Amino acid sequence: MTLLPDNALRESRCLIDGEWITERSSFPVTNPATGEVIATVPRLGAEHTRMAIEAAHRAGPGWAAMPAAQRANVLKRWHALILAHAEPLAQILTEEMGKPLSEARAEILCGAGYVEWFAEECRRPVGEVLASPDATRQLSTVRLPVGVVAAITPWNFPHAMLARKLAPALAAGCTVVAKPAELTPLSALALARLAQEAGVPPGVLNIVVGDPVTIGSELTANPLVRKLTFTGSTAVGKLLIRQCAETVKRVSMELGGNAPFIVFDDADLDAAVAGAMASKFRNAGQTCVCANRLFVQAGIYETFTQRLAAAVRDLRVGDGSQPGTTVGPLIDERAVAKAQHHVDDALARGATVVEGNAHLPGNFFAPTVLRDVTMNMLVARQETFGPVAPLIRFTDEADVIAQANATEAGLAGYFFTRDIARAHRVARRLEVGMVGINTGIISTEVAPFGGIKQSGYGREGGSGGMADYQDVKYCCLGNLS
Question: Aldehyde dehydrogenase domain spans which residues (predicted)?
Answer without folding.
Answer: 20-474
